[in-house]
Every structure is written in C-alpha cells, then in structure tokens.
Amino acid sequence: MAEQVSLTSIDEAGPGARETDVHGMTHAGKVREDNQDAFLIASLHHTLVVHDSSLFDVEPALFTSGRRGMLFLVADGVGGGSGGADASQSALRAAAGYVCDAMDHYSHNEPAAEPRFIERMLRAVELTHAVVREEAEKDESRRGMATTLTMVTVMWPRAHLVHVGDSRCYRLREGVLKRLTKDQTMAQMLLDEGKLSPAEAEQSRLRNVLWSAVGAPLAEPVMTSADVRWEDRMLLCSDGLTKHVSDEEIGEILGRPQSSKLICRDLIDLVLRRGATDNVTVIVGQMHRPAPRG
C-alpha cells in the first residue's frame, strides 16, 4: 500500500480564496525492499505548516517564516544501505528550512523581490548540498550518499522551481503537457550534444547515471519561474514513474476530471502493473477557481 497524504481547500495568499487540491503518494515498488524516495507538501504561513510528509518524525510546525505560499518537494536518494533514504530525508528537511529564510525576502509588491528570491532559492540548494555532504562524512556507512531534489514554491500567481538530478516537474495547462525540468543524466547530456538520438537516449543505461545530484561531487541547481493559472495541474515525480510511464500517458492521466488523490493513485497503480522496478513518488496539485461569492 502506498504512503499517501492529501491537502485540500487551503486558503492561500493574495485576494480571495485559493482552493487547492494537492496530494502526494510514495511506494517502494516491487523490486526494492526499502524506499529511498521522500516528499513533502507544506503551506507557508507565519510558520511552515507541514500537513503531512513521508519523513518519519517531522514536526507539525517545523520552521518559521514571515510570508505565505505553498511548497512541494520530491527527493530520490542514491546510496547503499540507509544512505539514499538518509540523503533524501536530510535534503527535504534542510531545503524546507532554507526556503523559509528565503520567504522572508519575498514581497509581491516589490519589483526587485523575485530576482532576490530566486538567488536565495539557489543558495538554499547550495546549503542543502553542503548539509548532505557533511552528514555523509560523519558516517562511513553513508559515504557517497546523494539525492535528487525537485522543489516548487507557489506564491500566487507565480511559481518558482529549482531542480537537481532527474526527478521531474510537469505542468498540464488546457490539455497541453509541458515538462518544466531537464534530466541531469549522462544520456540527456549526450542527447543535447547530438551524440544520441531520442530513441537511443531512452534505451541507454546512461539514462540512470546522474552527473549532478545533491550531496554528490557536483550539484548544479537549475531555477525556473513561471506564472500559475487557475486549473493548471502540476506533477512532481521521481524517475520511478517515468521509467514505466510515457509523457503522453502522463498527460492523459493528469487530464482526467478527478481529484489529485485519484490521479496519484492512477499513476502509482500503472507503475505497479508494469513491474515497478524502482521506488516511485508523485505529487499532484491543482488550484481551482473559487466560486463567485453571492
């Protein structure tokens, strides 16, 4: 049974209600005994209020912040023993804390706020990278542990995405699916250089080899900002999903007129039917236009 959380009808920052339907689910799969993935869904108020998470002992209000928004994170750990799970959980904890610090420097009404916030988000990943490497150095059994990290903060009507590794973020808007991240794998690098065709890259063993990861020798975060519209549906996922489900299938499932919880379940169930050779984690979120007030 997958671990799952849901978050519905959250009153968000800005004028009017923000009806938000968000759900997260993670599953170890059918091959691996342990689950090295981790996710976190939180709303940012005067404190970061964690509604639920795959982290084992996260506190309900773990960090403080002076602004409001939404935070979604997915991490896919790499490393033997407990190293991968430790890396993904440590990264989520550290990143969430640093995001709160960054939120203190964000204002919707200040033109220079967004560039400054983006700079601090990138700095948050650099600090998270340092935390994971430091923890690995303390314990011989965790040497070499690393993790992907895909993190989205939503301060209506803007979303800011920072990405390291190959956990992806997608957006479905008016029936059109767009991948907002590029995998930091050797196969993708060779594809970009024209040394592999798309078909070859898809089948290459190098599609599972990361050249950038939090805690690895090199972590190169990529930042993207975009507008958010009513009814946009966003997906964050580990590569346990995309190993078994194509972008076309993801778009079709995200487009179904059902709740984020059911969308998550459909995605996980499809992976399980196809063998689930890796841990799989998904977060699906959508903001519904509020009903007119009478």
Strand runs, count: 14
Main beta sheet: 8 strands, antiparallel
Give the H and E element order: EEEEEEHHEEEEEHHEEHHHE
* Whole-number total of structural domains: 1
C-alpha geometry: globular
CATH topology: Phosphatase 2c, domain 1
State the CATH architecture. 4-Layer Sandwich
Strand content: 25-35%
**Continuous helix count:** 7
Low-confidence stretches: 1-18
Through-space gap between termini: 43 Å
Structural class: alpha+beta
Mean pLDDT: 86
Question: What features would you describe in this structure?
Answer:
By secondary structure, the chain is an alpha+beta fold. It has a single domain, classed as Phosphatase 2c, domain 1 (4-Layer Sandwich), CATH 3.60.40. 29% of the residues lie in helices and 31% in strands. The chain is built from seven helices and 14 strands. The strands form two sheets. Strands 3, 4, 5, 6, 7, 8, 9 and 12 form an eight-stranded antiparallel beta sheet that branches. A hairpin with a 7-residue loop joins strand 4 (47-53) and strand 5 (61-64). Helix 1 runs antiparallel to helix 2. The chain is globular, with a radius of gyration of 18 Å.
